[in-house]
Amino acid sequence: MSVSVDSGNKSGKKSLNADLNLVPYIDLLTCMVAFLLITAVWTQLARLQAQQKGMGAAGEETPPELQVKIVVVVNQEGFNLVVGQDQTPIPKKGADEYDFEKLATELKKAKDGHPDKNDAQVASEDTIKFDVLVRTMDTALQARFPDISLVDTGAAGI
Amino acid sequence: MAIKAPSAHLYHSIKLEAANTKLGHGGRKSLNQALNLVAYIDMMTMLVIFLLMSFSASGEILFVQKNITLPDAQNWSDLDRAPVIGVTKDVVTLDGRQMATGEELMKDSATGDAKIPELADQLVTAKNNYKLLHPTEEFKGVCIIQSDKAVEFKILRKVMFSAATAGYQNVNFAVRPKAKGGAAPAAAE
After folding, report:
1. Residue B96 lies in a domain
2. Residue B147 is part of a domain; what is its CATH number?
3. Is ipTM beyond 0.85?
4. Which of B47, B62, B151 sits opposite A33 (nearest CB)?
5. Inside any domain, residue B110
6. Distance (Å, rounded) from C-alpha B12 to C-alpha B9?
7. Average pLDDT over residues B122-129
8. For residue range B22-75, what is the model confidence (pLDDT) as tens digits?
9. Could you list the residue range(s) of the whole structural domain that residue B159 is in?
10. CA-to-CA distance for B127 and B145, rounded, in angstroms?
11. Which residues in chain A are closer than 8 Å to B86, comparing Cβ atoms?
12. pTM metric for this prediction
């Protein structure tokens, strides 16, 4: 198992042909392939972080009446974005398709109006699918609300 | 049958003339052949590069269950080690052990209590074990919910409520990562 290197020098008395010993290199590669195959992670998964204000013991630090609450209510008709006392209904686009683009636009407006506000609640009805909730939370995170709480509509006080 | 003394030359009667000629260096061409290893080394190098690119130092935290289809999300963070609650339409599991069935969870309890007793008890046990094993570290109350995308919030609400009553206030939802958008990602911790 060797590779010869030809110097091209034909005039000298001693040939400069040398054999590279590739056995250690092949051993190293084989060990690395075996190790990496054993430790390989084939399914890349990630997480969305949410808190549970209103469901458990986590409380609000300041009185609720002093805070502007931003709540995205998810129901069978679509979304209802509640910012303080203002409500913006966002109906579905079709029979089953929620209008995430408009929700993103409205959430960006809400963020521009309250730039110090980092928390938002996603309040859901019982029949809403998990996929819709994840996309809603993802939209809220995209609109720079990093502290997301997932609650039911009763706990959100809507 | 006569007994013969052992001989070094078995099958002496078979005359392998061509082989004997070659091995005896009587032929014009040597039988020594150099293996061309360039292609083999190329292949191994490419394989090592590919595997190094997909290497994850944290290892595999979650195993995808066959009946769970995870939703996609753009604003994701990396997973941390925490108790994994698996939720499908049929069953709720904690680290692979069944805690409740979907049929039970879809029913409204008479008292209106959303707590899943076995799940809450097991999570309290996990919390106590964590505190025993990590006495100097603060308990963060993080659990991972690995839920199918078609599960209704009614089941999730009960799971989350049980986790909250056991002290797990921070819920991480397992998602399939998509390419991140232009906005800043979610603050991880």
Report:
1. yes
2. 3.30.420
3. no
4. B47
5. yes
6. 6
7. 92
8. 666 555 666 677 778 889 999 999 999 999 988 877 767 777 777 889 999 988
9. 72-177
10. 16
11. none
12. 0.72
